[in-house]
């Protein structure tokens, strides 16, 4: 590592360092979120609410690919930063190469295997006779070319951990803008369907990979492809540390499938279309919180490897304040602007509009707690407290959510569906609070100086 990089992380004020990571992460994630929303707006306005619902049904496959890249990518990047913090550059470079090879192999094999069963998979995801053609067309492309998305996402994570968050941001911006331009041309000039939209997303991601590769020309770059052989110890550590990130993304797929099935049962295609609108907006908030986690993880991992507890404590305090303010702001916007948010996505039937407005107002309660939960998961993951990080992700997005979505609709109807995530997030926050109070080692790290 160069002296300037070491001085930057070790000597500059923590608040300034955090902002240098946070701002590029948030800009990149917000642009990607805007890209997701604009995609939804264009599909909804050009192809209609059934096509929009079909894309929403197939979207968990995209999420699973991202989850695979985060599982190995975040685990490997955390080990990379810890090794750099400990001044072990050779181990860092071995870990980087090992991780990228694993990601490519895993996602290609999984994608091609799932492609063989893509029709059955489409129905399992919640498609009906109306939505099947759109969902299946989108699914085929994502399964066949999804490995490009995983390479882009993992490479971006490593580059951010190699003290180049600005390039990670630029690549996200380029990918998002190209995706919007390509899909506008596909939908409004060529008048093609959702399969072409999915292909446009893949093309934009491939160009994003090329942008990220310019990092290897950068002076002071610590990422190097080196000769490797399979290393069981690094593999186990990578998969263990990265598992909460995988589970977090997998939880999004579980959430999407569970909500689609529940709302289809209660309100039919109108309920699924309303959820598609909410899910696009929810993607914006997820990107914001993911951006915060992306700023926290490289710093905490590095400081943990360098044994700098004071900087860990200061970084976490700033991150929790930012997450709290963001969550409160999102909640207020949801309460005051629900109808306007729904109107952005198209001129839907009044039934769809009413369901979506109610959904936004109830669901947005979750953002009061979600940001803090995200930051705490990133913290525990970065210091290798995997059990707690796994508990946070599994309980908020799978365990409690599934319990509530099975029980609450029986008591409160469709409102019970919308409230399942807010209640899950709140309970998880309570468990984190209790853990922090009872765990002396955690409190020592969080409050004492070196």
From TrEMBL:
<dbReference type="InterPro" id="IPR048279">
    <property type="entry name" value="MdtK-like"/>
</dbReference>
<keyword id="KW-0046">Antibiotic resistance</keyword>
<dbReference type="GO" id="GO:0042910">
    <property type="term" value="F:xenobiotic transmembrane transporter activity"/>
</dbReference>
<keyword id="KW-0812">Transmembrane</keyword>
<feature type="transmembrane region" description="Helical">
    <location>
        <begin position="388"/>
        <end position="411"/>
    </location>
</feature>
<dbReference type="Pfam" id="PF01554">
    <property type="entry name" value="MatE"/>
</dbReference>
<feature type="transmembrane region" description="Helical">
    <location>
        <begin position="21"/>
        <end position="38"/>
    </location>
</feature>
<protein>
    <recommendedName>
        <fullName>Multidrug export protein MepA</fullName>
    </recommendedName>
</protein>
<feature type="transmembrane region" description="Helical">
    <location>
        <begin position="192"/>
        <end position="217"/>
    </location>
</feature>
<feature type="transmembrane region" description="Helical">
    <location>
        <begin position="417"/>
        <end position="436"/>
    </location>
</feature>
<feature type="transmembrane region" description="Helical">
    <location>
        <begin position="50"/>
        <end position="73"/>
    </location>
</feature>
<comment type="similarity">
    <text>Belongs to the multi antimicrobial extrusion (MATE) (TC 2.A.66.1) family. MepA subfamily.</text>
</comment>
<dbReference type="GO" id="GO:0046677">
    <property type="term" value="P:response to antibiotic"/>
</dbReference>
<keyword id="KW-0813">Transport</keyword>
<feature type="transmembrane region" description="Helical">
    <location>
        <begin position="238"/>
        <end position="261"/>
    </location>
</feature>
<feature type="transmembrane region" description="Helical">
    <location>
        <begin position="281"/>
        <end position="304"/>
    </location>
</feature>
<dbReference type="InterPro" id="IPR045070">
    <property type="entry name" value="MATE_MepA-like"/>
</dbReference>
<feature type="transmembrane region" description="Helical">
    <location>
        <begin position="355"/>
        <end position="376"/>
    </location>
</feature>
<dbReference type="InterPro" id="IPR002528">
    <property type="entry name" value="MATE_fam"/>
</dbReference>
<keyword id="KW-1003">Cell membrane</keyword>
<keyword id="KW-1133">Transmembrane helix</keyword>
<dbReference type="GO" id="GO:0005886">
    <property type="term" value="C:plasma membrane"/>
</dbReference>
<keyword id="KW-0472">Membrane</keyword>
<feature type="transmembrane region" description="Helical">
    <location>
        <begin position="94"/>
        <end position="118"/>
    </location>
</feature>
<feature type="transmembrane region" description="Helical">
    <location>
        <begin position="167"/>
        <end position="186"/>
    </location>
</feature>
<dbReference type="InterPro" id="IPR051327">
    <property type="entry name" value="MATE_MepA_subfamily"/>
</dbReference>
<dbReference type="GO" id="GO:0015297">
    <property type="term" value="F:antiporter activity"/>
</dbReference>
<feature type="transmembrane region" description="Helical">
    <location>
        <begin position="138"/>
        <end position="155"/>
    </location>
</feature>
<feature type="transmembrane region" description="Helical">
    <location>
        <begin position="316"/>
        <end position="335"/>
    </location>
</feature>
């Amino acid at each position: 590592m160069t002296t300037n990089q070491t001085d930057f992380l070790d000597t500059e004020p923590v608040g300034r360092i955090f902002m240098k990571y946070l701002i590029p992460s948030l800009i990149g994630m917000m642009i990607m979120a805007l890209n997701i929303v604009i995609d939804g707006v264009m599909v909804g306005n050009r192809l209609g609410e059934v096509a929009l619902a079909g894309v929403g049904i197939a979207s968990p496959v995209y999420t699973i690919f991202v989850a695979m890249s985060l599982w190995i990518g975040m685990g490997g990047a955390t080990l990379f930063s810890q090794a750099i913090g400990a001044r072990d550059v050779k181990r860092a470079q071995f870990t980087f190469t090992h991780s990228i090879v694993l990601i490519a192999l895993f996602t290609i094999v999984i994608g091609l295997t799932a492609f063989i069963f893509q029709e059955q998979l489409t129905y399992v995801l919640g498609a009906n006779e109306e939505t099947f053609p759109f969902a299946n067309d989108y699914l085929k492309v994502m399964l066949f070319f999804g490995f490009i998305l995983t390479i882009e996402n993992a490479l971006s994570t490593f580059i951010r951990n190699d003290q180049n968050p600005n390039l990670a941001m630029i690549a996200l911006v380029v990918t998002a803008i190209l995706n919007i331009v390509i899909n506008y041309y596909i939908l409004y000039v060529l008048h093609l369907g959702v399969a072409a939209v999915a292909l446009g997303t893949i093309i934009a991601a491939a160009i994003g990979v090329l942008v990220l590769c310019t990092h290897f020309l950068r002076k002071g770059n610590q990422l190097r492809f080196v000769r490797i052989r399979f290393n069981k110890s690094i593999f186990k550590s990578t998969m263990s540390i990265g598992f909460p990130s995988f589970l977090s993304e997998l939880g999004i797929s579980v959430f999407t499938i569970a909500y689609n099935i529940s709302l289809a049962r209660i309100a039919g295609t109108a309920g699924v279309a309303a959820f598609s609108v909410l899910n696009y907006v929810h993607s914006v908030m997820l990107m914001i919180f993911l951006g915060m986690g992306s700023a926290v993880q490289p710093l905490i991992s590095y400081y943990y490897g360098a044994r700098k507890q004071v900087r860990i404590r200061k970084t976490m305090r700033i991150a929790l304040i930012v997450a709290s303010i963001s969550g409160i702001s999102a909640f207020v916007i949801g309460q005051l602007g629900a109808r306007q948010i729904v109107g952005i996505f198209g001129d839907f039937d009044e039934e769809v509009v009413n369901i979506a407005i109610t959904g936004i107002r109830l669901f947005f309660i979750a953002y009061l707690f979600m940001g803090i939960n995200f930051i705490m998961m990133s913290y525990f993951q970065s210091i290798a407290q995997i059990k707690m990080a796994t508990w946070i992700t599994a309980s908020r997005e799978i365990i409690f959510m599934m319990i509530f979505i099975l029980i609450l609709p029986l008591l409160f109807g469709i409102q019970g569906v919308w409230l399942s995530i807010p209640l899950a997030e709140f309970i998880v926050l309570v468990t984190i609070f209790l853990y922090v109070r009872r765990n002396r080692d955690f409190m020592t790290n969080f409050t004492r100086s070196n």
